[in-house]
Structure formats: C-alpha cells, structure tokens
Amino acid sequence: MTTTSFILTSYNIHKGMSPLNRQVKMQGIAQALETVGADILCLQEVQGQNLKRNMQYNEYPNQSQHEWFGEFLDLENSYGKNSEYENGHHGNAVLSRFPLDPKHNVNITVNRLEQRGVLHCEVQPIGWERPVVVLCAHLNLFERDRIKQYQAISDYVKNEIAPDQPLILAGDFNDWKKMSCDKLATELGMIEAFKHCHGKLLPTFPAKLPVLSLDRIYLRNLVVKNAWVHSGKPWSSLSDHLPISAELMLP
C-alpha cells in the first residue's frame, strides 16, 4: 500500500528533562509522542549519554535517548553527536516508521561554546520511487553565528542533494528574529510549512507561555497539507519547546 501522505514532527526535547532541569520527562515525552503518531521525528538536544544524570535519577535510562525512544515508539533511529563533554554527549536524532538510511552528520559549529550539527538521513515512504531527504538541524543562539550556519547548510544542500529530490529541513533554528525564511529558504527554493498554511510562523518557546517562533519545517518538492503546534498540556511541562508537526505529500 503506497504512502499517500505522512506526518513529520520536529521537537527540541531538552535532553529529556523538564524546562528547569528538575525532573526527568522521558516517559511523559514518549507517551505524548505516541499520541501524535508521527511517521518521522526530528529531535534536537537528544542525550546520547549522561553519566551524571544516570547516577542522579533512577528513572533516567541507561541507553541513549534515540534508542530508548526508538524502542518505545517502535521507530528506526539515527543519531548525530554534536556536543561532547566529560559526562557524555548530545546531538540530533531522526526516527522513522519507514526504512531509514543515515547518511552524514554535518558539522555547522562556528564557535567553541556551541557545538551544532545537521543530521542528514534518507527515509523511504512505502511505494515512493525516491527517498525523502531529511535534515534535522539545531542552530546557534546569536544571529551573527546563524548567518554563517545558513550559508553552511545552503552550501551542503546545493552540493549534496539533487534539486528534484524531496527534501525536508526541520529543527530548532533559534531564529527569534525570523530571518531564516528569507536568508536560507529563499536561496534553496524551500517553503516553510507554517508560513504556507497560516501566513505566519507560530510561537513554540517557552513551552509554558510561547512567544518566540524558534522551530521550523522547510520543504522542497513536497506539498504541505497542514501544519500545527502541539500546545497546552502535557506539552507545556515536558520540555522548554513545543513540538511542531506537518502533514506532507508528493506534488
């Protein structure tokens, strides 16, 4: 049976901790994501390992979070390590109900304080001739850094991804100035799901009382049927960001 459309959800999970880092929220996040039923997940701030929290909290899983979520949600998973430190490391992850082919973790770090990356995977929806390229991104906090990162992402896409390939670029852009649509998407011929559906970006941060639009789903050679933010309970107390979803299909 050919896949006609699929749901992609992008979510900064704040390393599986509550907004103020006082409680482990892995179980709550997994149960909430289960109700969403996304076919593809782009997760940011995924903890590959944290030895300190393993010792500190009984409910903190011993395995890496992308594997733990993969088992809970029955999804294939891939992880790109961006930031390494004494007790562990974190990065981005892509999880998929469809066959998943991890390709490359693109280093877009531009200063020593923030290690950032874009995880490149290919996902094969059932019955589709070509796989969908999924890029899961997490960008810096300062606009001057993000401008360099827009350029790095743009160069990578132009050099590595065929212009006619279905392409999704999703993640936490930290883009409170709302510049990435003009500076990155226009250059790559991509549309942003929320701007397309609602005529504007919707706020996703902070989760309890969202005022800033930091998260994005860009696409090319795909059609967006709908796009929505998951707000209210339980999402408002699970992470510091709200997740966003879009239903996508072939033109």
Explain briefly what this protein structure is.
By secondary structure, the chain is an alpha+beta fold.
* Gross CATH architecture: 4-Layer Sandwich
CATH superfamily: Endonuclease/exonuclease/phosphatase
CATH topology: Deoxyribonuclease I, Chain A
Mean pLDDT score, rounded? 96
Helix content: 10-25%
Quaternary class: single chain
Q: List the helices and strands in order.
A: EHEHHEEEEEHEHEHEEE
Question: How many strands in all?
Answer: 12
InterPro entries: Endo/exonu/phosph_ase_sf (IPR036691), Endo/exonuclease/phosphatase (IPR005135), GPI-anchor_lipid_remodeler (IPR051916)
GO molecular function, one term: catalytic activity
Protein name: Endonuclease/exonuclease/phosphatase domain-containing protein
Domain Endonuclease/exonuclease/phosphatase: 10-241
